Amino acid sequence: MKINKEIRDFYLKTRKLIKNGQLDFFPIYVFFFISFLALGLVFIFPDYLIFTSKKTNGIYREGVYEDVKTLTPYLTTNDTEKTIANIIFPSLFENYNGKIISKFLKSYLVNKEKTEIQITLKDKLYWANGEKLTTEDIRFGLEFAKKFAPSEISRFFSQLEFKIINESQGVFISKFPDNYLIYNLVYLKPLPVKVFSHYSPDFYALDLAQNGFGPFVLKEVRNNKKKIIVLERNKYFPEKVYLKRIEFHIFKDQKEALTAFFTKEIDALAGINYFNLPSGFKKRIRIYKIVLPRVIGIFFNQQKIKANEIVDFLNANLDRQEIVKNVFNNYAEKSEGIFSPSVRKILNLKGVEVLSPQKTAKPQFDFTLILPNSFYYPDLARYLKSKFKIDFVIVSRIDLNEIIKNKDYQALLYGINYGYPPNLAYFFSQTGINLNNSESKILEKEILETKINPAKDIFSSQQEIEKIILDQKSNIFLVNPYYLYLVDKKFEGFDIFFVNDFSERFVKIQNIYSK
């Protein structure tokens, strides 16, 4: 090793100087010798020198503003419950910045027909109570999901069976070819069959969360001035975990949680809107701008309005970057198509054609935008009205759902979360909510082929589906807002930049540590 040779040369030269009585230069050589020795240690023992700087007794306190009543998978009712449940009960497969990983599996193999996935568990896996984890727990997790998961998840699981080969191997068998098969398994939670059988039918009990597999499990629930959900390190988790404990402090609303963050009562806060961040506060914190598979746009009802000229005019004259700056305070990225630049990079898709500004006459804007009364939609609508004189009406989320269901609109200012990998059928197909109220046989065929044709690549196929939708000229895609996560700078190791859902931000929480 070259570094060791240089250390040896310095040592021999220093020794020669001592012998010859040339001690005037001795301190300099000692200095260089020690410096090279230290450098050598960095090369020889890099892991040791890096890891010893990470504290293993840190306490991570996150503020939330939704109550926690259950942590049982599929029975959770809000994002906070779902987030904590995902830590305690990880999915069989997980999305880590656009890549599929598993805390459970040594290997898996998908057959070319996309009807089977054979899995092999890692060696020596245990639940937090010390019970061995086996394929029987995976089988039970699937049956539990069929009974209790939300309908959009249970529909997929109803077509799936799990055949046990032995306690460490098994096969998922789908009734039909499904290119989304492995990606849908990110919703499957292995569950400790012995524990859950004991608690049946009271699956809502918080005590169940003491027996998970994740890096942290439930320790206690404190109820003093406020409710605190305390998770402790799972000693049976097979990977290194740096934090000693995680606390979720429950506040009555976002404002109270933000105040607690300012006063250092908590260390992290998720989902704060861009307009709530005070200037000058960034010195103490890191603001993580997390990308989600979503887009905000204007969606026209083809049966109510012919929007070709409107779409062409707005696409050519809208300044999306100005929207990002003035409406979203730079906490978003512009999106000329369904997929914003960051999502396109993850999906490995080419960009869309950007139209140059046109001096053509403005078409008649004889339509009214309908939008929800939440988040950034009212601000965005006011911007569009100031620039293009577009009228709008703000309604409640409940009313908006009914309006979409009955197709009682000309145009919507709306946001869609199309998932990863993208599943655009829900928003643009006749089998879903069909925002454009369209009847495109070409689109329906491409969406179906992408799902069931084993020869189709579900990622590259998104480019063709997007092109068909754009060519209909019934949509104007605008921006993809970031999901903001605020963390005190005394914590390191958070490396998430893309999630399918807010609740997946802790997929690598075992890597977070305090300095």
Describe this structure in words.
- With 515 residues, the chain is an alpha+beta fold.
- The protein has four domains: 2-51, no CATH class; 55-88 and 214-290 and 499-515, Periplasmic binding protein-like II (D-Maltodextrin-Binding Protein, domain 2, 3-Layer(aba) Sandwich), CATH 3.40.190; 90-199, Dipeptide-binding Protein, domain 1, CATH 3.90.76.10; 294-481, Dipeptide-binding Protein, Domain 3 (Dipeptide-binding Protein, domain 3).
- It contains 17 helices and 21 strands.
- It has a seven-stranded mixed sheet with strand order 8-9-10-1-11-19-12.
- A hairpin with a 3-residue loop joins strand 8 and strand 9 (227-233).
- It is globular and about 70 Å long.
- Mean pLDDT is 90; it is low at 28-52.
Brief summary of the model shown:
32% of the residues lie in helices and 22% in strands.
List keywords for this structure.
17 helices; 4 domains; Dipeptide-binding Protein, domain 1; globular; D-Maltodextrin-Binding Protein, domain 2; 7-stranded mixed sheet; alpha+beta; 515 residues; 6-stranded mixed sheet
Topology, please?
Layout: H1 2-19, H2 26-44, H3 46-51, E1 58-64, H4 79-88, E2 94-96, E3 99-101, E4 105-110, E5 116-121, H5 135-148, H6 151-157, E6 160-166, E7 169-174, H7 181-184, H8 193-199, E8 216-223, E9 227-233, E10 243-250, H9 254-262, E11 268-270, E12 285-290, E13 294-300, H10 308-317, H11 320-326, E14 332-334, H12 341-347, E15 368-372, H13 377-388, E16 391-395, H14 397-406, E17 411-417, H15 425-428, H16 441-452, H17 461-471, E18 475-481, E19 483-488, E20 491-492, E21 513-514
Parallel strand pairs: 1-10, 1-11, 15-16, 15-17
Antiparallel strand pairs: 2-3, 4-5, 5-7, 6-7, 8-9, 9-10, 11-19, 12-19, 13-17, 13-18, 14-18, 20-21
